[in-house]
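Consortium newsletter contribution from the modelling node. Members have asked for a concrete example of what our holo predictions look like. Here is one, prepared for the adenosine-5'-diphosphate complex that several groups have been discussing at recent meetings.
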Amino acid sequence: MKVLIINAGSSSIKYQLFEMPAEKVLAKGLLERIGEEISQLSHSFDGSTYKAEQKVSDHTAGMKLIIDTLGGPKTGVIKDVSEIFAVGHRVVHGGEEFTDSIIISEKVIASIEKFADLAPLHNPPNLTGIRASQKSLPHALQVACFDTAFHTSIPMTAYIYALPYEIYEKYRVRRYGFHGTSHSYVAKRAAKLLGASPQDFNIITCHLGNGCSLTAVKAGKSVDTSMGLTPLEGVAMGTRSGDFDPAILFYLSEKGYSISELNTMCNKKSGLLGISGVSNDMRNLRDQARSGNERAKLALDIFCYRIKKYIGTYTAVLGRLDAVVFTGGIGENAADIRELSCDGLEQIGIEIDPAANEKTNHGEGPISSSKSRVKVYIIPTNEELAIAQDTFRLAE
Ligand code: ADP
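And here is the predicted structure:
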């Protein structure tokens, strides 16, 4: 069965075509700059990459180009579009309603529209992708997979903020959490690699990319996660602040900052970029820190300190901790960040083996020392595969 995975952004569509259940990637690509003068398509298949530039006015035209490319004489991996049995869409916010992936109906679409209020930058383009896919592939089953779904198991004690309760009742202001597809995927994979039953396995998953979040997973279920109502809460990120005293916002607003300026500051100008004044990209920052830039070094130290604090907190939340997993661009590739984030955690049973940490960098496997009671792993995330697995499950 061929399953197409779509991740639609405001001006881009990322896609992967899988043969399921073999989990084989037949083709993948990215269409960028939709709606601009010239749009760019990069399409990889059979070990080669095809690039094209042309005007693509909207997502519907974008989906058509992608499907034509998937079936094209020189770029194609299918003979006919009817071979695509199902399409799995990444949708960021599923509110409290969607606890699992779901087959898309008009009712589901209405709910995704409703939750756009909570994810104004993500849900509307996700929905545009769904509409475009329905038009281009009317025969195919359309499935929505939500970033929030995995976290709907979080108990009330962890998801209710200590604000007046009516704020939750009236506006549904609560912790939702994100990166759920990634946390769920690496938690399952870790249980498999360790030969453990997910029902008897407690793990902290650290997704460290441009956005970063940690999740406490107990018996296969998310019981707490660091991101909140929005992806701003939690550890420090590339450009997001993570946790800070909310009174800072009142203080700065009295100093003349507008809500919109504060929003931009916290989401786009803080985190690694804000502290260092240099870059939000870990590779640049590390180069700067190594060549003596003190603020770049401070940014790295704060980044790792916050991760360590959350690992400690979630160890307390879980009671018994079996494993810690690092994933995402930073988690998979930055040995120094993993080491510093776990430095001094021997008392709670976490000890990294520096040689294994270096050797397994960019790969998959254990990086804890033989003395470490808690296993520490690098597991590359694969959100597209996780969506393909869910879509296939529902299609079956
Ligand atoms: P996104 O959240 O956008 O999917 P990624 O998961 O790709 O982001 O992570 C991007 C981050 O990973 C960037 O900060 C980048 O510098 C970092 N990164 C990628 N490769 C390396 C590397 N080899 N060493 C250190 N950091 C890396």
